[in-house]
Specification:
Structural class: alpha/beta
Distance between the termini: 32 Å
Strand order of the largest sheet: 1-2-3-4-5-7-6
Radius of gyration: 20 Å
Number of helices: 10
Length: 275
């Protein structure tokens, strides 16, 4: 599969909530990955929702070789979680974080969302204060986006809530200041980390190197091509079993396209682009 003796450096289990799977299924998937690669990836991240974090799952992931956990907190404030339609609680997030640390993980990311309707600056700063207390190695902060077919999008369409770009910018700038003061340096538009704890998997993607996505809807860039697996579970499964993966889209990449994408994504990163 990997010509020229190339090795896989990073693995990222995400694009949903893989930790919803029971420990046995997670272990089976993990062992198949380790067997295929010959060893655990240098950086192996698993995304977890706070409500799915359990000591037995964490221990099993640690034993497999997972060395980075990304915890989808979104907010520690109950009213904000309710506004986002999240089923977890702030208390669950704190308990989950403690369990992750107790399991021995020393590279943890926390995901947070800001500019939620009715979110005051005080509520957001409370979230950032909680980050200071917990001291994770990495934080990803995302401005709320309104996806179609969601309750928030319906409210936006009806004029029940509005988007205020200046307000979003205020949240963003305060975030820079607070996280920088904690020793979490911004290295990409939405990502902050302690020195040496940047997400290698994402850096690889932003630098337009190769990656391979497994599972329905997963995208890949490999061998001069970019392609996306079919989103339909049955179509995807039949393609895998037949050895002819079902793709939704596929394109051949020219050197010019790769160079342009390298510049565009390079501008997302604080290091910028060396032309």
């Amino acid at each position: 599969i990997f010509p020229g003796g190339r090795t896989v450096e990073t693995a990222f289990w995400g694009g949903g909530t893989p930790s919803l799977l029971p420990p046995g299924d997670l272990e089976r998937l993990g062992r198949s990955q380790v067997t295929a690669l010959g060893a655990p990836a240098k950086e192996w991240t698993v995304e977890m929702a706070p409500s799915t974090v359990k000591p037995d799952k964490l221990q099993m992931l640690k034993d497999l070789g997972v060395n980075r956990i990304s915890l989808g907190v979104q907010s520690f404030q109950e009213e904000m979680l309710e506004a986002m339609g999240r089923r977890q609680s702030g208390r669950q997030a704190l308990e989950a974080y403690d369990q992750i640390r107790a399991a021995g993980f020393d590279n943890v990311n926390i995901d947070l969302i800001f500019a939620v309707p009715n979110q005051t600056m005080d509520l957001w700063l409370r979230d950032l204060d909680k980050v200071r207390e917990l001291a994770p190695e990495h934080v990803s902060t995302y401005c709320l986006t309104f996806e179609e077919d969601t309750a928030l999008y319906a409210k936006l369409s009806k004029g029940q809530i509005i988007q205020d770009v200046d307000r979003e910018a205020d949240f963003y700038e305060r975030t820079w200041e607070r996280l920088e003061a904690m020793g979490l340096h911004q290295y990409e538009i939405s990502n902050f980390s302690q020195p040496g704890k940047e997400c290698l998997h994402n850096l690889n993607t932003w630098r337009m190197h190769d990656w391979i996505g497994f599972g329905p809807s997963a995208s890949s860039q490999f061998g001069g091509r970019r392609f996306t697996n079919n989103a339909n579970l049955e179509t995807w499964r039949v393609g895998v079993e037949s050895g002819q993966p079902a793709l939704m889209e596929e394109s051949i990449l020219s050197a010019e396209e790769l160079a342009l994408d390298r510049i565009v994504f390079g501008l997302r990163m604080n290091k910028g682009v060396d032309l």
